[in-house]
Amino acid sequence: MNRIFKYELKRLIINKFFLGLLIISALYSREIMCRDIILGVSNTAPFSGWSYGTYLAKVLPILLVTLLFFISFLYLRQEKSVQALTKATPIDPFKFQMLRFGTIIVGFILISAVPIAYSFYFYAVNFHFTNIGSLVLPTVITLLPAMLFVFGLGVLGGQYHQGLVFVLMTAVILVSFIPLPYAVDLFGGNFFTKYPQSLDVVEPAFSIPASVVIGKVIYGLTGLGMMLLSGIQKKRKI
């Protein structure tokens, strides 16, 4: 299984598309940080949890489009040869599908590491801020639920038609511009920007209301459920 995982991971990341996505992610991260975050968000410091959450929320659509791009690889015509190979091996189809999902998640983590690493560098150089631990919570609450939910939608939709994955890419970009209620704000941009203004405190400490936490948990669990359902359906087809 380890050899198969390494092989699938190499197929995913050792190509010109992955390099191009890394470059795009780096350039966009720099643009957002220098244009929107450097002065802080909602009268908070540029390195506060609120400003950092806003930064990740603005970068997140690009990361999720990249995730869906990776998922689209699963449904290319060339993958039919991989499916034929799978049928001829003793590998359980469900486990093989989960393994391939794992490689895509690793690819997403590598892409996400670009804006995260750049932000740490930016904060250290410009503000001498190195308290990385204070940024873990906004990072997890922003990236993880959104990744799981969009991943689940992508793999489930892609099984019915590859074109649905590309439709989702457009939907991700469009939804990122809609100011949704905090509890259902998948990206978190509206929450990170508006909520601290309602606290009537100068430089409020970073905190997340229970309703927002519940919303993120529901998104994450729904995404996991769709991923498992996709794996089960794949096994039945094979």
UniProtKB/TrEMBL annotation:
Membrane-crossing segments per the record: 12-29, 55-77, 98-123, 135-156, 163-184, 204-229
Keywords: Membrane, Transmembrane, Transmembrane helix
Top-level division of the source organism's lineage: Bacteria
Keyword Transmembrane helix: yes
Stated name of the protein: ABC-2 family transporter protein
Organism name: Clostridium malenominatum
